Amino acid sequence: MYQADNTNYRTNESFIQEFTRSCLGRIIIATVIILAALLMAYFTAPKESDMDAEMNDNLMQCLEVNDGVKGDVVDDYVHNLTFIFTTADTTVIDRDKLETYEKHNRLESYRHTFYSTSYIYNNMHPEGTRVGVGIFGIIIPTVFYEDILLDVGPVHKGYEQKLNQAPIMDDTDLGETPNITEFHYKGDLEN
Asked: E strands along 6-147, which residues?
């Protein structure tokens, strides 16, 4: 049907409203937001020296917190969150533990394009394990107490011994297995 007066159906939207409601406009807006975030991440990624200083502080806090009772994984995550906002009290840390840490562990930081990472190297983790990430100017520790090597001792007593010795099994008879038959349901038996 032909309608003579079709002015009621026209919209008076501006170009900006039409652009933001179109698919191409939304894609362009999302692309601009992502590029702005990447540009901001590029300029605010921490330098290696900043990562080293902050991660050394975070590792000292980890040594300080785990001096007494060792918690579970949730405690480690909560401690890592609090390490972002606090600094270590170096007077509390045992000097022997600190010397052992410095002797057997090496911290290295790397600056990537949009973020920075810190790795700790020791005999337990010769390939390194990540203990911190820095992005948008914030350094987030991911260190666990198990990542730090503090106890060093011999793995075996002599060179002739194997690292993993096979357990010695005696030849005791463990008995016979009962007859295993298939189970068939026969319904409820009512008398």
From this structure: 106-111, 116-121, 129-135, 138-141
In the block, tokens 């902050």 appear at 54
* CA–CA separation, 128 and 148 (whole Å): 11
Distance CA 146, CA 135 (A): 24
The residues spanned by each domain of the chain are 15-44, 45-150
Cα–Cα distance for residue pair 182/185, rounded to 1 Å: 10
53 burial class (0-12, 13-18, 19+ CB within 10 angstroms)? Answer: middle
What's the predicted TM-score (pTM) here? 0.64
Helix, strand or coil for residue 83?
helix
What residues form DSSP beta bridges with 77?
none
In tens digits, what is the pLDDT along the chain, a chain of 191 residues? 566 666 665 566 778 888 888 888 899 999 999 999 999 999 999 998 988 888 888 888 888 887 666 667 788 888 888 888 888 777 777 788 788 888 888 899 999 999 999 999 988 888 888 999 999 988 989 888 888 887 766 555 666 666 555 556 566 666 666 666 666 666 666 65
